[in-house]
Amino acid sequence: MKIADILRDKKFVFSMEIFPPKPDSDISVIYNTLDGLKDLKPDFISITFGAGGGTRTRTVEIAERIENHYKIPCMAHLTCIGATKASITEILNELKAKNIQNIMALRGDLPEGVKNPLKDFKYAADLVKFIKKKWDFCVGVAGYPEKHPQAKDMKRDLKHLKEKVKAGASFITTQLFLNNDHYFNYVKMVREAGITVPVLPGIMTATKLSSIERMTKMCGVEIPERFKTATSTCAIDNPVCDETVKYTVGQINHLIKNGVPGIHLYTMNRVEQNRHIYEESDISKMRQ
Ligand code: FAD
After folding, report:
1. According to the model, what pLDDT value does residue 52 have?
2. pTM of the entire structure?
3. Secondary structure class of 151 (helix, strand, coil)
4. Which of 128, 174, 202, 240 is paired with 76 by a 20 to 30 Å CA distance?
């Protein structure tokens, strides 16, 4: 099923993101994760694509399992930086043959200091155009409520977001944020820029404080004072801290109360925490 149709038909869409285990580790670990998450009945599950295509085979294999074994609509992520048109064509044909109908089209990042030797794709918009020319996938793209770290300013970032939508993207999923004001201001600016597609808020489900610090720094995301206060008693490396879970539940409930089109959970492949967040938050109520 296409996500554009789900978003059109449902008032509230619940989705989750997982990532493939490293190529040299046991793939069954992710199937255990999916076994633990599937009965939350997400409207779709997305599976990430390793930078530079490192997890390509696994992304395709897991996408197929989600779509055809678990019977949950799947969105396969695909990055284009450093890729050729031929290699992207091959992956898209593989995904199509496996009945995948949704692609999250991304530029991706090259390792620091590495220059892109290839000219086939420079930005995500190039990938969206390429996909839409030959295939009938439903395409989602990434949005950055606090601006993409490489963008000079929000105005330019929104201009490029609009190019992705004009090229054929049907919806936007945001990068994580811890302060909901950023999401609501962003949606306002997106609409003022003339972009009308749904903007799904991406929420990082509770993880170690040390990981949150690392990720927010990397992505240019603010850690609000109220998050610091709420989690001040958590040990930095405690993998399951009640306070971060509570903060996430509160953040989700506030978003829902203010009419978001859905919630996309960055699950970090954790079963218990995500089940808990689902049940404790208003996501479960929205789906009754
Ligand atoms: P783009 O939309 O191409 O934008 C990148 C930058 O270039 C922005 O600063 C933009 O303003 C600028 N830009 C765009 N067009 C132009 C232009 N014409 N001229 C000048 N500047 C321009 N990474 C992975 O490796 N694998 C994943 O699976 C993955 N999944 C993600 C899912 C989501 C929801 C999000 C938010 C991010 C994800 N990422 C993933 C990270 C993403 O690859 C990085 O954030 C990357 O730096 C940008 O990708 P993009 O698709 O947003 O790029």
Report:
1. 65
2. 0.97
3. coil
4. 240
- Token digits of residue 71: 């019977």
- Which two three-digit tokens encode residue 219? 């992505």
Closest-lying ligand 1 atom to the alpha carbon of residue 123:
3
**Residues 64-97: tens digit of each pLDDT:** 999 999 999 999 999 999 999 999 999 999 999 9
The pLDDT assigned to 206 comes to 72
CATH of the domain at 215: 3.20.20.220
**From atom 28 of ligand 1, which residue's Cα is the shortest distance away?**
48
Q: Which residue has the tokens 């989705």?
A: 15
Percent of the chain with pLDDT over 70: 99
Report the residue among 123, 263, 268 best suited for mutation to probe ligand 1: largest number of ligand atoms under 8 A from its CB.
123
In contact, 287 and 14? CB cutoff 8 Å: yes
Q: How many domains does the chain have?
A: 1
Residue 258 structural domain? 3-287
Q: Concatenated DSSP letters for the chain? A: --HHHHHHH-SSEEEEEE-PPPTTS-THHHHHHHHHHGGG--SEEEE---GGGTTHHHHHHHHHIIIIIS---EEEEEE-TT--HHHHHHHHHHHHHTT--EEEEE---PPTT------S-SSHHHHHHHHHHH---EEEEEE-TT--TT-S-HHHHHHHHHHHHHTT--EEEEPP-S-HHHHHHHHHHHHHTT--S-EEPEEE----HHHHHHHHHHHT----HHHHHHTTTS-TT-SS-HHHHHHHHHHHHHHHHTT-SEEEEE-TT-HHHHHHHHHHSTHHHHT-
The one-letter amino acid at 202? G
Residue nearest ligand 1's atom 52 by CA: 142
